Amino acid sequence: MSVFSQNIKLLRNRKRFTQDEVAQSLAMKRSTLSGYENEVAHPSIQVLVAFSEYFNVSIDTLIKVDLTKLTESQMNQLERGYDVFIKGSKLRVLTTTVGSDNEENIELVGEKAKAGYTSGFADPEYIKVLPTFRLPFLSKQKKYRSFQISGDSMLPIPDGAYVTGEYVQNWNSIKDKGAYIILTLDDGIVFKVIENKIKNENKFRLHSLNSLYEPYDLNVSEVREVWRFVNYISSEMPEANEMRQDIVQSLDSLRREVKQMQTKLNLQ
Fold first, then answer.
1. DSSP-derived pairing of the beta strands 162-167 and 223-233
2. Is residue 64 domain-shared with residue 111, that is, in the same domain?
């Protein structure tokens, strides 16, 4: 069966539509639709356009991408309108793992695995040996992965914390001031707050929560994956905010000095 025939049948079945219902919507006979699904008939350009508009999936995806190989979370994104062929970029098919119940795992990329992940992120053999776990409070309709971060650039999230992210397929949907885990060609895995400048400058500006680190720009051609921050796990107790305490003490001291000055002026 051709990719197109397989895809339109899959999309129809996922919507739980009968051949009669789809054929009627597309103003064609049921036998004609059956012919397309069974690879007896071959669609014209006009027919491809009609199917593309009906399922809200690009023609490129319908005829080039085997949708049966996508994960459930990827199919959900596709059906919600996040077909990246429509956005004019390459389809990002994520390598993932599933458990014995056929539900997706959360793969864990620890500190020692981070270097290998940079080159093995798209290799099924590499991904399947990563440790996996589940977080029952996260949606089964989305894809998640956890990464161990290092350094103090995102304090108060501490060095060594495990940060879980939701896979982002459409980078144009990335919102400013959101925290994301980014896989880059040169720097590997980085965890930053993103300022999205794709539309006008084809780049991200990356910010740290720690003000000691200056923001910097990253061209999207250097990016391989983006994961939206969901939560983090750490065994380290957050430190008290000493800087804030210092500020409070300074303000109290300043108030006392002002009060003393007012008292002296009143005595004069």
1. antiparallel
2. no
Closest by alpha carbon to 91, among 110, 64, 131, 123? 64
97 and 127 Cβ atoms separated by less than 8 Å: yes
**Domains: count for the chain:** 2
For 20-54, the pLDDT digits (tens) are 999 999 999 999 999 999 999 999 999 999 999 89
Look at the alpha carbons of 134, 135, 141, 142 in this order and tell me if their dihedral is positive or negative. negative
Same domain, residue pair 142 and 199: yes
Q: Work out the widest C-alpha separation in the chain, in whole angstroms.
A: 105
Mean pLDDT for the chain? 86
**What residue numbers bound the domain in which 162 lies?**
106-233
SS3 183: strand
Cβ–Cβ contacts within 10 Å for residue 223, how many? 17
C-alpha 216/C-alpha 208 separation (Å) is 9
Cβ atoms 147, 114 nearer than 8 A? yes
From 178, 187, 105, select the one nearest 149 (Cα to Cα): 187
How many Å apart are CA 187 and CA 207, to the nearest integer? 15
| 201-223: pLDDT as tens digits | 989 999 999 989 999 999 988 88
Q: At what angle do helices 72-79 and 3-14 cross, to 10 degrees?
A: 80
pLDDT at 238: 67
Pairing type for strands 203-207 and 216-219 reads antiparallel
Give the H/E segment covering residue 193.
strand 188-197
